[in-house]
Amino acid sequence: MTQLNNHNVGSLSAAVETPTYDRQAVTPGIVHIGVGGFHRAHQAMYVDALMNQGEALNWGIVGVGVMPGDKRMQQALAAQDYLYTLVVKHPDGEYQPRVIGSMVNYLFAPEDPEAVIETMADPAIKIVSLTVTEGGYNFHPVSGEFNLDAPQVRDDLA
User: Fold this and answer.
1) Within a domain: residue 92?
2) Domain-embedded: residue 71
3) Is the torsion defined by CA of 87, 17, 127, 113 positive or negative?
């Protein structure tokens, strides 16, 4: 299997759409907190589409992770030069794989909160956005009830 990164993206099958823009020319314009599947399949994909049209090269995305599990996302994206594959399923059942290149960095806030603040305060940043999971967090996986015993909830209530 080919490792997805800037060096190898050009060697992917022609069936996989790849960025047509110079990723080295992309500069940050958006900070997005909560880089999950929804963000990657929507906001980042639309920014990538604009970049493929020669627009928005100053709207690169800096992802920010705040939850403990986000460290894995940072590591995975960094290993791939912040590229990832999105597979779109069309109404006719056709699958369309494409590589998204609009993300230019990913910061893990618990390790370096100052870098997050500095990045958000950068005059080049035009948007700070965030995604919160539809159901939120701290729900019991079986009952669906809000979990007052979750450490984050207890800390907030203290």
Assistant:
1) yes
2) yes
3) positive
Both tokens of 41, joined, read 């399949």
Tell me the pTM.
0.85
* Sequence-ordered list of residues with C-beta below 8 angstroms from that of 57, at least 6 positions apart, any chain: 21, 25, 26, 27, 51
Whether residue 4 lies inside any domain: the answer is no
Question: How many domains, the chain?
Answer: 1
Query: Which residues does 97 contact at the CB level (< 8 Å), separation at least 6?
Result: 15, 16, 17, 85, 86, 87, 88
pLDDT digits (tens, 9 = 90+) for 7-45: 999 999 999 999 999 999 999 999 999 999 999 999 999
> Is residue 18 a contact partner of residue 10, using CB atoms and an 8 Å limit?
yes
Alpha-helix residue ranges (DSSP H) falling in 22-141: 37-41, 43-52, 70-79, 113-121
Q: 22 is in which domain, residue-wise?
A: 9-134
